[in-house]
Automatic annotation (TrEMBL):
The lineage of its organism: Eukaryota, Metazoa, Ecdysozoa, Arthropoda, Hexapoda. This is Methionine aminopeptidase 2. The gene is LOC108739959. It comes from Agrilus planipennis. Its EC number is 3.4.11.18. Residues 69-80 have a biased composition (Basic and acidic residues). A divalent metal cation 1 binds at D235, D246, E443.
């Protein structure tokens, strides 16, 4: 989620079996020759069954049906057991289904979740300590002290990886944006094993298209359809105990946009490589911009330079707080503040064929309760009621109107506006560059561990 500057009866009837019996009858003629003639017997009707015979037959039929039902049920149970067995591999560990539905915690019986990409810190001028961190016993001991935290983040990251892997092969042009978001969120909720504020989605699914760079998710009734020529940014988050994975990627179906997508992916990887303990945030921004703006995109015979969107940034992350105070610019300049040990960051970059600046536009869908808001008295009962819903279900994590609808909230528009006017809740409208341009985004969450930098959300896809 960007930081901004400023889901035939057989048997009894046999047709009375039209029985034809053939008899051989011997006849002697005058010449004593013996001939055989075939003689047909008339059809015989079976005598009517008496009451007790009919009842007995009925019981037999019923018992047969019952036995058939029992066999069918037994077969169904066997089929269920077979399916359960099929979910386990040779190792005895559960295997993921397709589409994914098995919670990540059930896939790893030892409850130790996969590490992300491990990288050594960059060596700064006249400073050899970055290299020493990787082998230092003292730093390794500090690492072990935070293993529980790292494991929670890795669990959230694995849920993110498996969800996006499914979505990347499932999404097709012609689907509505609501359909896409509901599929993604439904899968993610199962994999993260949603449990109130302890585990779940960290913010609404962003699916911003084309000139819209960030913070768009459809509200109820939005008819928008994904088209072949769209460039769509899929930005969603998962969390365990408030430990957030903020990670995004760009989908495009027409290969003519490949250079734009590649530019932003390259710039994000550059930012990740440059990040590290004691690294100045402004230096990361300069490195990102240099790589981003070395690309250009040719569309319909016209060449467009690819620009970093200068008023969008990466950001630090803390428990239940997606924007924790520090911003990671994607252009040169900015703060000389340094990154510190055990901090978490979302390194995200945005490229555009437009002006390289975004502004608020379109209907708002994203909202988030302010982290440091003091107590504010509320007069409207509807506002109090809505705030209780927000506190119980989202806390200080971002939410959207679709999620309020899902919880059964109704007629909340006035109450939501009241909470925003009083500064208790902040609105985050879609952020757009000029119409007609195209934007792309890639993002990863990194942990600055005492020994190394871990790109915890890294996957085989990006």
């Amino acid at each position: 989620m960007a930081a901004v500057k400023t889901d035939i009866e057989v048997g009894e009837n046999e047709d009375d079996a039209e029985i034809e019996e053939i008899e051989d009858v011997e006849e002697t003629n005058s010449t004593n020759e013996v001939t055989k003639k075939k003689k047909k017997k008339k059809k015989k009707k079976k005598p009517a069954e008496n009451g007790s015979a009919a009842i007995e037959k009925e019981n037999i039929a019923e018992n047969g049906e019952a036995n058939g039902d029992i066999e069918k049920e037994a077969g169904d149970e066997g089929e269920k057991k077979k399916k359960k067995r099929n979910r386990k591999g040779k190792s005895g560990k559960n295997q993921q289904t397709d589409p994914p539905s098995v919670p990540i915690v059930d896939l790893f019986p030892d409850q130790v979740f996969p590490e992300g990409e491990i990288m050594q810190y960059p060596i700064l001028k006249d400073d050899r300590t970055a290299k020493d961190r990787f082998t230092s016993e003292e730093k390794k001991a500090l690492d072990r002290m935070h293993n529980d935290i790292y494991n929670e983040v890795r669990l959230a990251a694995e849920a993110h990886r498996q969800t996006r892997k499914h979505i990347q092969k499932w999404v097709k042009p012609g689907m509505t944006m609501i359909e896409i978001c509901e599929e993604l969120e439904g899968v993610a909720r199962k994999l993260i094993k949603e449990n109130g504020l302890q585990a779940g989605l960290a913010f609404p699914t962003g699916c911003s298209r084309n000139h819209c760079a960030a913070h768009y998710t459809p509200n109820a009734g939005d008819p928008t359809v994904l088209e072949y020529d769209d460039v769509v940014k899929i930005d969603f988050g998962t969390h365990i105990n408030g430990r957030i994975i903020d990670c995004a990627f760009t989908l495009s179906f027409n290969p003519k946009y490949d250079n734009l997508v590649n530019a932003v992916k390259d710039a994000t990887n550059t930012g990740i490589k440059a990040a590290g303990i004691d690294v100045k945030l402004c230096d990361i921004g300069a490195a990102i911009q240099e790589v981003m703006e070395s690309y250009e995109l040719e569309l319909d015979g016209k060449t467009y330079p690819i620009k970093s969107i200068r008023n969008l940034n990466g950001h630090s992350i803390s428990p239940y707080r997606i924007h924790a105070g520090k911003t990671v610019p994607i252009v040169k300049g900015g703060e000389e503040t340094v990154m510190e040990e055990n901090e978490f960051y979302a390194i995200e970059t945005f490229g555009s064929t437009g002006r390289g600046v975004v502004h608020d536009d379109m209907e708002c869908s994203h909202y988030m309760k302010n982290f440091d808001t003091p107590y504010v008295p509320l007069r409207l009962m509807s506002s109090k009621s809505l705030l209780n819903v927000i506190n119980k279900n989202f806390g200080t994590l971002a939410f959207c109107k679709r999620w309020l609808d899902r919880l059964g909230a109704t007629k909340y528009q006035m109450a939501l506006k009241d909470l925003c006017d009083k500064g208790i809740v902040e609105a985050y409208p879609p952020l757009c560059d000029i119409k007609g341009c195209y934007t792309a985004q890639f993002e990863h969450t990194i942990m600055l561990r005492p020994t190394c930098k871990e790109v915890v959300s890294r996957g085989d896809d990006y």
